[in-house]
Amino acid sequence: MTRAELEHAIRAACDVADEDQVYVFGSQSILGQFPDAPPALRTSSEVDVSPKAHPERVDAIDGALGELSAFHNAFGFYVRGVPIETATLPAGWKRRVVAVSNRNTRMKAGLCLEVHDLAASKLAAFREKDRDFVRVLLAERLVKKQRLIERLRALDLPESRVNRLVKWVEVTYRDLREGESD
Which of 136, 137, 151, 170 has the most other CB atoms within 10 Å of its CB? Predict the structure, then answer.
């Protein structure tokens, strides 16, 4: 996915939901903060969005722009309408969103997750593809280890689970840095 495609997705989702702002979460929200993110972070063909003022309109977005829709067939990517509550996000995430709003979005706004919030959310899910995504963020130095750990500690998860996630970040970070000196 490209930044232009993300902007198109924001515009289309706002139009379908009759909204001025949508939250953009999931992997492609990386394009809000890093429009030229490394290719390994832009492999998904889907954008997860939730209308800010009218979250009940996620089904309309999914129906009109979702997987196997005419939109998907025409443009090669799709927009999933998903309730924002399905994501596990650190406390305070709304204050840190990165707004994408320009002529290509028709001045509608996609409120993309800040990179550390995105990484914490991905680790909360802890699927292999999510760990791979965060590993690339760490390898490319798009996230700072300590700030990511702070965001993990701000997740509403049991302490034992947060501690396991923190350990994963520390071990992964160490392994990546050791690999650089080889």
Answer: 151
